[in-house]
Amino acid sequence: MSVAGVDIERVSFGYESTKILDDVSLRVEKGEFFAFLGPSGSGKTTLLRLVAGFGTPSAGAVRVNGRDVTDTPPWKRNVGMVFQSYALWPHMTVAKNVAFGLERRDVPKSEIARRVAAALDLVGLGAYGDRRPAQLSGGQQQRVAVARTLVIEPEVLLLDEPLSNLDAKLRVEMRQEIRELQRKLGLTTIYVTHDQEEANAVADRIAVLDGGRIQQLGAPMALYDRPANRFVAAFLGTANLIEGDVREGGRFEAEGFALDGLSAPRAGRACVSFRPHDVTLTADGSTLSGTVRHREFLGGTVRYVVAVGKHSVTVDTVHRRDARAYDVGAAVGLAIDARQASVLY
What we know:
This protein is α+β, with helices and mostly antiparallel strands. It is built from eight helices and 20 strands.
C-alpha cells in the first residue's frame, strides 16, 4: 500500500453568493493522521469531499502525492472514503460489500477473495464474511466500512465523522482501534469531526475551521495550550474568556477581576483565556474572591461556576472522598495560574 501526502492550495468553494471555503491552504504529510475540526457549517466536510473528488473548487488546487487531482474524478484518485452513514449494501453479505470496489475495478476473482479475507482479518471480522449488515452491531458495521475502503489499497484514507452513530463508550473504543490501525498501516489519514475530544485523541495535527477558514493549525496540545483566538480557545474544550485591559508589566484588569504575571506582548484591550483546571478554590486568602453560583458533580471532577464581580469563572476540581466541596452561595477565593493563561487580542 503506497502512501501519499495531500496538498490543499488556496482552495475556495461556494454556491452562488454563499462561500463555504475561503482561500484554505494546508499540507498533510505522508503517513500523518490529520483532523479537520469545526462546528456544523465550518466547511470541514466540504473540504474532505473536495479531497475525495466529490466536487471541484471554484479556486485553488488539490494535490495527492504531488499530482494535481483537482479535476480528477473520485475513482481515479486512489483515495478511499468512509462515510458517516457507512453506506453498506443491506442485501449483500459483508464479504460482498468489501469486494464491491474491487469488482468495479475488474480485479481477478482469486485476487478479490484473497484481499477481502485479508481486509476483514485486519479489522477483526474474518469470521463475519457471510453475514448481512443488519446482523452486525454498529461498531462492526463501521469496521466493514473501513475494510471496504482499505481493500482497494488507497493512498489516502478519508473518514467523515465515522463514529457519530455510535454510543459514547463504543466511540472511545472505535477511535482507539482506528488510530492503532492507521499506525500499523502508516496510511495518510484525514479525519473529519466536530468533537474536539475525538480529534485530540487521534490526530497528529488538527486544522480548526470556522466560517470556511482555518482558524489555527497544529498539534492538539499546542492548540489547547496556546489558542490563537477566542474561537479556538472556546471550541477546544472549556475556557474562561474575560474581556478587559492589559496593563504594562503583565497585569490584566476587568471590572471586579484582576490577574498579574501574564506574558503579554503589548498593553491594550484584550481577552484573557484560562482553563477551568488552572483555577484553585480556597476558603480565603486569595487575590480574587467570588461566590459559588452553580455546582455539578461529574464523577472524577466537580465543576463550579463562580461569580467574580460581573464575570462568571468556571472551575474544575478533582473529586476525592475527603475533598472539600463548596455549597452554592459559599464565598470562595480563587487562585489562577497566570502561566497557563493566554492573552488574545
